[in-house]
């Protein structure tokens, strides 16, 4: 019997170790990675579209305040604007977490100390509360900083792409923000075609806002816009910016990307 004791002890240790691995692996949902999350200002904050050029549009449809800022791992020097993420927190991370996922769009940058974490989401106050169990959002707000799981997902807004003419646009300068972009969500290229010109690449001005110089005598509206996603898919919105366009006006296209990655 004594001769078998070390073997039995080894077996017990092995079983305990395997049980630990199973428990540990079950804590992180398949396909997700780990991150840190905080929230904007207060529980009723819709967040911001500042660094991506979306301004206060994030508070209303199609974003409905379900947005987030991200550190450079997500923001990517503004090229990450528009990407969508599914995030959740479990009771292992905080007892007030529901474990139910929500989807948020990256619309702003979380600078400074957010970059002390490998991946950091600064979620709108409204969206942050939706991570909690029913009736326990206040406890999650009190925690302030929580661990979460996240994964990249396709954007799906159930609408076509919206183009908002930037407030600084004038007859010699045209800038436009693309909103409600399905699929990848983030863009690698925006091109413009005037009524009597070939396609001209625009320059990223800020986040999802792209700009170009205009010769009003020769480059006349209507303007068509061609968008290329991060994964090099393209869609064209013909004549989407009409003659007589105005700064801050929003023009709805008849196109969008497939809602998959």
Automatic annotation (TrEMBL):
Domain Expansin-like EG45 positions: 49-160
Stored SUPFAM superfamilies: Barwin-like endoglucanases, PHL pollen allergen
Gene Ontology terms: biological process: anatomical structure morphogenesis
Subcellular location: Secreted
Secreted found in the keyword field: yes
Signal sequence residues: 1-27
Keyword Signal: yes
Segments traversing the membrane: none
UniProtKB keywords: Secreted, Signal
Coiled coil region boundaries: none
Record domain Expansin-like CBD: where: 172-253
GO CC aspect terms: extracellular region
PANTHER family: EXPANSIN-B2 (PTHR31692:SF95), EXPANSIN-B3 (PTHR31692)
Protein's name in the database: Expansin-B2
Gene: LOC104226040
